[in-house]
Q: What sequence folds into this?
């Protein structure tokens, strides 16, 4: 696997982890959290949503996608990549765009 693909996967994993943290906080808010804590939890979730968005649209991701041949016109990138890598690029391009 090319180093660009490995870095793209690493950045995607970071964004996914932020999303998972957000999901746990949301679940807690809906099930066990005291009513008086809702305002602060809302701020926590909003902060995480912002971080996840920043990670998803970071310029580095656009650069990595471009270096792998992915564009809006050719989201699957370089034809020399493995089929599963090209499918992954297509999904990443869609999320990035």
A:
């Amino acid at each position: 696997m090319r180093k660009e693909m490995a870095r793209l996967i690493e950045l995607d994993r970071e964004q996914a982890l932020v999303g998972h943290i957000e999901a746990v906080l949301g679940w807690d808010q809906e099930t066990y959290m005291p009513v008086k804590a809702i305002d602060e939890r809302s701020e926590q979730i909003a902060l995480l949503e912002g971080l996840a968005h920043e990670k998803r649209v970071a310029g580095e991701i656009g650069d990595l996608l471009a270096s792998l041949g992915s564009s809006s016109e050719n989201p699957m990138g370089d034809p020399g990549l493995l089929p599963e890598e090209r499918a992954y690029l297509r999904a990443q391009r869609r999320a990035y765009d």
The chain has one domain: 3-96. The radius of gyration is 17 Å. The longest helix spans residues 3-31.
